[in-house]
Amino acid sequence: MKLVHWIYPELPAQPLLSQLAPQDLLLLRQDGCYSLLLDWPQLPCRSLVLATDLKARGLNVKAAWQSIEDSVWVELAAQASQVVLWPK
Description:
Strand order of the largest sheet: 4-3-2-1-5
Number of strands: 5
Radius of gyration: 12 Å
Strand content: 15-25%
Mean pLDDT: 89
Distance between the termini: 22 Å
Largest sheet: 5 strands, parallel
C-alpha cells in the first residue's frame, strides 16, 4: 500500500488517478484540502483528508472522503510500503 499526499489543489488529478491502485490511500493535506471543492471522478482507492488542515481552512469533508486525525496519518505512513508527495 502506498500513501499519496496531495497538497497542490491546482494540479490536474488525472495523472495521479492513473497511478493509484485499490489498496493505496490518497490523503489531502495542507492546501490540497481545497481539492474537495472540485468534482472528483470515481476514485480507485480510499480517500482521506487531514482533519486539522480541513478545520484550518474552514472546509467540510465530502461524503466520498474520510477525515482523519494526525495520529492516524502517522500510523498510516508507518504502515505504508511507500509514501509519496505528489510532485508539482
